[in-house]
Structures are given as C-alpha cells and as structure tokens.
C-alpha cells in the first residue's frame, strides 16, 4: 500500500472513531437501596420485600463526559418469578458541563397483586451522546453568536438501538409481609458475683430500625431452660431497654442467654447510634502513633448523642431526662470505655484533661461538655474539660476530641507523636476511614470493649458466678447529706436526705438515722456492688431546742433548731411624733431581743 493509501486509511479510522458512538462508561453498578444521598452514597437494602413496600433500584456510571457534555440512558426492567416483565422505565441523565459521574434511582411501590417469590431486575446503561454533533455546537458557538446575537449548546443524542450498552442484574425476594429489622445489643447483668439467696436482673437493648411496628417475645434462658418471657412492642424507629428478673440460683456457674422470636433480628457488637435513616455501628479502631494514641470512631458518638449528624445542619439536643435515651446512653458508655483505655495507656496527670479541637463541627462545642458531664456523673471518671483549643493551645489537653465529617489527621501528627491522645469522631455516615486505618496501622481492640463497661458479651451467652462467701462484704459510703432547714417552727417538718454508695461486695445492710440519739429512720437494704441509692424522709420536732442528726453512726452529722412559733402582736396607732419616738425605742428593743434569743439558742445547744 502506498504512503497516500496508508494516510487515507488512518484518516478514515480517525473520522470513524469521532463519528461512531462510543461506550466509555466505567464503574457501572446496580444496587437495591433504602436511601440515597448522592453518587456512591446510599444505604443498601437487606432482607426481603413485602407487598406495599417501596422498591428502590440504584444505578451509577462514570467516565460519561465527552467534549464537555454527557447523555446517558438507564433502562430498568423487572421480571416476576415466572420471568414475565412486570415493570420498567427509562431515566436519562444529560447536560452540558463537566459532570463525569451520574446515577439514577428507579422507585416504585410494590403492588398487592404481585405474587411472592424471587424477582430479578435488569438494568442497562446506554451512552447515547452524539459527541460529534455536540462538539460542532461548541465549535460554531462564536459564529452563531456573532450572526444571530445569541447562541446555546444543546445535547445531541443517538437512538439507543444504534449504540452499545452494558448490563447488570440484581434480584430480591418478595414475601407477604416484610418485617422491620430489630437490632439487639448491650446485654448485661446488674451483678456478676452474688451471695447465695439474692435475686438479680438482666437487661438488653433493642432497636426497631424499620418503618413497621415490631411485636415479639423475648425469652431469658438459664442453663438452656426458659426462665422468663417478656412481650416486647417497639413502634417504628423506637428503642427500649428490656429487663428480666433472675430468680435465686444455686451455688455455681450459670449460663444466661436472651432469645428473641423475630424473623428479622440482627446482633450488634458495637454500641450503635441511630439518627434516622442512618445506623452507625462500625468498629472503633485504635493504634499507637509515636508516643501518643489515636482512636478512630466512625460512629458519630458526640453529635449523635444530640440526635444529629454531619449530613445535616440541625441543632443538637442532649437529653437530660431520667428515661432511657438510646443514643445518649450508648455514646456515654462507649466514650467511657475509650476514656478508660486512654487513662490506662496514654499520658496524663491526676486527672484526664480533655479538649475539643477548634476545627471540629461547631455543634460539638455545645454537646461535648454536656456529654462528658453525663459520663462523669455515671462513672465518676477523673475527667476535666478544658474547652475548645487551637493549634498553639493543644498542650493544655491530655486528650483531644476531633469531631468532623472529613478528618485531616496530619495536622495533629506532631501533637500525637509527642504523647497526646486524639479521638477522631467522624460524623459522616459514608466515611470509611480506610486510608486513615492503613496509614496509621489502626486495629480493633477487644480490650476497648471491657475497660469499664463489659461489652464483649453483647447478645451472647453470659456467665454469672454465685458463691456462698464473698471476699468483700458491703461497704457503705454516705454523701449529699442535707437537712432542709436550719431553724424551723415546732411542729413543722424538716426533710432529711442523703445518698448511699456500696463500694464493697453485694449483700444486705442496715441503713439508719438517729436524731438526738433516737433512731428515726431504719431500713434493711439489698445492695449490689457499686450501687447508689437515694434516701429522703421528713422529721417533725415536737419541742423547742436543738436537734443533732447522725447517719448510721458515721462521722456525718448536722444540727438544726426548733423554736416556738411567734404570734403577731397588734400595734396601736401612734401620732407622728410618738411614732418617730417609738421607732427608736422599737429598734433598741428589737436589737436586745435578738441578742437574747441568740443567747438562749446557744445555751440550749450547749446543754444538749
């Protein structure tokens, strides 16, 4: 072939390449989803569908841009169990910009007339952009603007039957009624070591993360036998703490297990955060970096305790009620374990000084102090919050919280390597953290699940040991002792209140209070290890004098005084001059009466 022939052939090939449609899409994928936030940001559907449920099919493709334009057709076809097509649609994505990634979502409510069984969904992607015609519009833009006074660029497409395509397929199961997913986690005993003859309780958390009510029975098995059964009713998106009473058991080891009669139950090891529709439940990763510690939490514990995420701008609300609030409790427990881990392996003084990195989500400035205060209240952790810190102030903190949707840990490397500890709490549900985990060599730590609260046995068999003898008897410590009034009228009650904490082993102890040596309050109480109880009662003095209140022969005591009620006296009307003179006399008499009353009270107290 001559040189001219070769050149002519190359030109033809080039022209053919430019004119012919090309399918250059990459990363074509199809998923069944529950929720979509954008390209590659979706919550995947698991489990079967029921009649009346919403079916969502997500499809995506990359590298769709040619000459600053794109036109992509997604074709969806659903086939029933007999392989008949029962639904379908075409969704086009097009535009004249630099978009290079597109996605489409086919949504439909599953009709009641569909039969149960396995369905399959075929999804096709067609790159239908006529790139040559679109490029000509760009090339002629200036000429058309000059000649006509205005110009625009339109997307030109080709018929789908003239272009190549790619195909993906997914399938799902259709049942009569689908069940909401119920998550089970955080099971625990009130006490793991007890003397013979004491009762016990076991609690477990349950969350209905679906849009249908869940009603089922939960059973407590002791040594493989059903001991008790609870009916559980959870409204859509509701969580609750289910409690079982454990009867008196014989001496020895006993295996306890919670069994849930529900077809769509799932067990979680990590304490979750649920902010509809996002369920954060990834493992917490830890690792040493230089002389410091790095903890990566992908579970939004700080903002999640206030009911928000990094995907919204809603104001947080940290609950202070005494009721069970799942996100608050799970955040407090998990962070307590992390703080205990840092206390054990990190650097600190007599207390753990905790700060918030200034590049954190600004809402964390409100939530973190309240959350830490709640943690300290529940665990008595030696934590001191030092506020929001900028880079030059990081030395004030032993531990730094970094609450963000996209962490840049490199800027904290020097602080960590020099001995600081950092908890990175990620607020974006879709952040995987794979690059951070790889770069810093982070790993899951089984120890992290038991540093304070023992979370290792979540939703698994739990062992309780009962012994006839305890190495530690109950040891009671009194606090928050108060008497409502210092001086009270005879016949009027005062309120006496106090807290009792058992810092010893489990057992029965007597709690009593004396007033002037006489027992006025007496209760026999079963105490569990580390249990705190609040007591309050009213006492009415019957005679004038001083009263000494003593708690259980302890050094704690308080004194109050009772006096006879003073009756008001009628004062006669005086002339202005007499009234002026009377005021001076009244002031003198009042002063002398006050001194006399004080002397009488002191004398009574000394006599007592």
Automatic annotation (TrEMBL):
<keyword id="KW-1133">Transmembrane helix</keyword>
<keyword id="KW-0812">Transmembrane</keyword>
<protein>
    <submittedName>
        <fullName>CARDB</fullName>
    </submittedName>
</protein>
<feature type="transmembrane region" description="Helical">
    <location>
        <begin position="586"/>
        <end position="606"/>
    </location>
</feature>
<feature type="domain" description="CARDB">
    <location>
        <begin position="187"/>
        <end position="265"/>
    </location>
</feature>
<dbReference type="InterPro" id="IPR013783">
    <property type="entry name" value="Ig-like_fold"/>
</dbReference>
<dbReference type="Pfam" id="PF07705">
    <property type="entry name" value="CARDB"/>
</dbReference>
<dbReference type="InterPro" id="IPR011635">
    <property type="entry name" value="CARDB"/>
</dbReference>
<keyword id="KW-0472">Membrane</keyword>
């Amino acid at each position: 072939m001559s040189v001219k022939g070769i050149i002519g052939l190359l030109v033809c090939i080039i022209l053919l390449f430019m004119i012919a449609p090309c399918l250059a899409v990459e990363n074509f994928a199809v998923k069944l989803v529950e929720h979509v936030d954008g390209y590659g940001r979706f919550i995947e559907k698991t489990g079967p569908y029921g009649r009346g449920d919403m079916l969502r099919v997500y499809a995506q493709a990359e590298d769709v841009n040619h000459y600053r334009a794109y036109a992509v057709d997604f074709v969806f076809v659903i086939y029933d169990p007999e392989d008949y097509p029962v639904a379908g649609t075409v969704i086009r994505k097009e535009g004249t910009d630099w978009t290079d990634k597109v996605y489409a979502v086919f949504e439909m409510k599953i009709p009641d007339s569909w039969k149960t069984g396995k369905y399959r969904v075929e999804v096709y992607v067609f790159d239908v952009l006529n790139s040559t015609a679109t490029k000509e519009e760009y090339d002629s833009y200036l000429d058309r603007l000059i000649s006509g006074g205005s110009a625009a660029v339109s997307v030109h497409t080709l018929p789908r039957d003239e272009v190549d395509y790619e195909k993906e397929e997914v399938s799902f199961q259709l049942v009569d009624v689908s069940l909401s997913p119920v998550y089970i986690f955080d099971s625990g005993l009130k006490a793991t070591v007890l003397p013979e003859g004491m009762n016990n309780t076991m609690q477990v958390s349950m969350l209905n993360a679906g849009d249908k009510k869940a009603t089922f029975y939960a059973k407590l098995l002791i040594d493989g036998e059903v001991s008790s059964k609870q009916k559980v009713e959870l409204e859509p998106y509701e969580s609750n703490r289910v409690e079982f009473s454990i009867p008196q058991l014989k001496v020895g080891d006993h295996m306890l297990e919670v069994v849930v009669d529900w077809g769509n139950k799932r067990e979680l090891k990590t304490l979750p955060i649920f902010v509809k529709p996002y369920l954060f439940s990834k493992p917490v990763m830890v690792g040493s970096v230089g002389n410091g510690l790095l903890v990566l939490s992908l579970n939004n514990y700080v903002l999640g305790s206030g009911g928000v995420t990094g995907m919204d701008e809603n104001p947080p609300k940290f609950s202070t009620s005494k009721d069970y609030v799942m996100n608050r409790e799970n955040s407090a427990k998990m962070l307590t374990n992390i703080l205990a881990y840092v206390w054990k392996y990190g650097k600190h003084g007599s207390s753990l000084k905790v700060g918030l990195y200034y590049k954190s989500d600004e809402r964390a400035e409100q939530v973190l102090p309240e959350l830490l205060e709640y943690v300290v209240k529940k665990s008595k952790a030696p934590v001191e919050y030092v506020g929001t810190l900028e880079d030059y102030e990081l030395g004030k903190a032993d531990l730094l919280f970094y609450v963000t949707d996209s962490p840049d840990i490199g800027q904290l490397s020097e602080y960590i390597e020099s001995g600081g500890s950092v908890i990175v709490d990620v607020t974006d549900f879709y952040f995987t953290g794979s690059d951070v985990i790889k770069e810093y060599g982070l790993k899951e730590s089984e120890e992290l699940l038991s540093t304070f609260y023992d979370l290792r046995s979540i939703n698994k068999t739990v062992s309780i040991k009962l012994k006839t003898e305890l190495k530690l008897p109950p040891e009671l410590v009194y606090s928050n002792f108060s008497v409502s009034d210092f001086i009270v009228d005879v016949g009027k009650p005062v309120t006496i209140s106090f807290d009792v904490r058992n810092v010893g082993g489990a057992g029965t102890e007597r709690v009593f209070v004396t007033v002037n040596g006489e027992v006025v309050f007496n209760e026999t109480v079963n105490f569990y290890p580390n249990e705190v109880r609040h007591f309050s009662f009213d006492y009415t003095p019957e005679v004038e004098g001083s009263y000494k209140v003593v708690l259980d022969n302890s050094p704690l005591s308080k004194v109050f005084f009772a006096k006879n009620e003073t009756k008001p006296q009628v004062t006669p009307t005086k002339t202005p001059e007499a009234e002026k003179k009377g005021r001076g006399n009244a002031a003198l008499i009042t002063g002398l009466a006050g001194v006399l009353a004080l002397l009488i009270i002191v004398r009574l107290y000394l006599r007592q």
